[in-house]
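Appendix B: complex inputs.
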Amino acid sequence: MNVVVVYAHPYDGSFCKGLLDTVVSRLESRGATVKVKDLVKMNFDPVMRPDDLAATKTKVYSDEVKQEQADVLWSDAIVTIAPVWFAAMPGFLKAYFDKVFITGFAYDHTGVGKLQGKRVFSLFTNGVNDPYLEMTGQYDAIHLVMDSLFGMTGFVDVATKFFASVPVVSDEVRKQYLEEATQFVDQIFDRQPGEIGQKGHSALLTRLVVKGCLNGAV
Ligand SMILES: Cc1cc2nc3c(=O)[nH]c(=O)nc-3n(C[C@H](O)[C@H](O)[C@H](O)COP(=O)(O)O)c2cc1C
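Resulting structure:
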């Protein structure tokens, strides 16, 4: 089992770093080969430059993007680990996917993703509590983006886990969170591809594309 872990946090004292260490150690103990992409430490360039966007047509990618695309193709599953910032994944994580999963590489106008059969398991830390996240639509906001990004590109499982109130919970709850993170990534080994599925946003989008409702806009 080949797993790419995309890690988006600048600070080694963060809870996300605890999640990273726990998850990588668990994946390896279950026999996976893991490549960690620490976006800050590798200084991944988050800016979409003219040549990066022209690649939708030219298919000429920067060396950095080419390397990431090769690792995505190598992977059976992707794990992402990041905080929620302003109801979204951090901009530099989104930028990674904008550039690496660009039109022509990860999907095209047919509505059939080009990364068929892959799986994604995302872990997000939150500063606020669960009722707030539910009532303000923050969970929905993230699910919509994850389904669009990974569903449209052919992933069969789009699994997302949130850890609420991280800065204020007790050490006991943090330990429990790490245990839950372990169980979450165990699904990569213990559940069949496609068993988890996704929320349905991208399934709807794909149907609309196939019906021509989007006029080839994707
Ligand atoms: C710029 C910024 C925006 C944030 N926006 C949100 C938010 O919209 N929702 C939320 O639950 N927490 C938000 N937070 C709090 C972080 O998500 C929280 O501190 C973090 O997940 C804690 O985990 P960490 O120790 O891994 O950083 C924000 C933090 C920052 C720095």
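The longest strand covers residues 77-83.
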